[in-house]
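Aim 2 progress update. The chain analyzed this quarter is reproduced below.
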Amino acid sequence: MNAMNVRRRHISGIAVTAAAALGLGTLSACSGDSAAAGNTDKFDVVASFYPMAFLAERIGGDHVNVSSLTEPGQEPHDLELSTKQRAQLEETDAALFLKGLQPAVDEAIGQSGVKTKIDAATLTSLEEHGAEAGGHDHEGEHAHEEEHAGEEHAGEEHAEEEHGHDHSHEAGGKDPHIWLDPVKYAEVAEGVGKAFEKADPDHAADYKKNTEALVKKLGELNTKFETGLKDTDTKVFITTHAAFGYLAERYGLTEEAISGLSPESEPSAARVKELEKMAKADGVSTIFYETLVSDKTAKTVAKDANLKTDVLDPLEGITDKSRGDDYFQVMEANLKALQTALGAK
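Predicted structure tokens:
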């Protein structure tokens, strides 16, 4: 008898909560505020991972409620979404993501009914950084530059072949790491700003103002990198994660990745030998690893080749291990690390 009462009370409790939820739903829908369609009365934005969330927060300011699908410290590339996260996508006003980086996110957003879908990959131009990922013969700077010039015209076959080892998170061999180039990131910021203005016109003036401020700050960061890396002993840096192709291209550097674009792949013994030879030839002092993935590979290769290790952060998430609390601080730490490793004057 007692158990029966408990069960009945439990059921009626659920019913009351459901009714309350429905009541709230109708209330907010009647208020006529476009932003109330989500689960808060602000403009709700679900971002795929940190670089997208950062843009949404900076551009949205007080008018947005931003949540990220990738937890701090979680490797974004192999993210799987929970049922709760999928439900959240149905309730949000906008989803901001970077197609080609997280297959599970691309699929979930594609299938969701979210009204405003903002794909950062469409807001700037993505490129292929095939040669960096594959082991190419390294005959000093000059050969690399020539090879780089020819890269654009090398055609799809070449790109496919270079990227054969890892299609897990690349849209047709395109490198998704655009946020590590402040100029491309600023282009994305401008597109996100326009999308916010359109989706939440009541606050368009603020979105515009915030976007302009962010773009200006990214312009200043670009200048710092330009001047800071102009005069260095070497232009080559070695990293465990081939995330810095855009950054390298922007500032006239050469990124050599121990493995390809996937942080998990183990380098071959031949590749390690090649990197040792190259480090000697190019005056490379340091192997960079990142914070979110194990530094085992970097430390092993560095020990074998008698090199130092340091962190170059691909900024896929901020944790308490990060060298800074936000995008700008960590990028400045990256600049310092590069200057030291490359022997900046």
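The CA atoms of residues 139 and 341 lie 20 Å apart. Residues 2-30 form the longest helix (29 residues). These observations will guide the mutagenesis experiments scheduled for the next reporting period.
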